[in-house]
Amino acid sequence: MREQIKQTQNMMIDLFEVAAHASQPGTISTSLIEAQQALLTAEQLYGSLDDAQQTASQSTFKNFVDSAAHLNLMIVKSLDNNDLVYADRIQNELTALKQLI
Length: 101
Fold this sequence. Notes:
The chain is mainly alpha-helical. Helices cover 87% and strands 0% of the residues. It has 4 helices and no strands. It has helices at 2-21, 25-47, 51-81, 86-99. The longest helix is centred in the middle third of the chain and has 31 residues, at 51-81.
């Protein structure tokens, strides 16, 4: 189960990478939607772990979910504002998110 969670998290990060580097708004939107779906799947898989497994990784997983939500918002803001100021911040968030897996 943990391996499925890890694979789903990695897939979500790949989708965020696509969204962060794409130039077409449609590609960005689609990638963000798919990344959110992957996050929901990871949360469902995490919820199916037994209590001991959940307790052992609860704070790390919560940090991962919070970071993913923040990254999603940051990408949306950069898309809405058509602003590249967020590029470095987005890359830093992606790096931090990868370290939480």
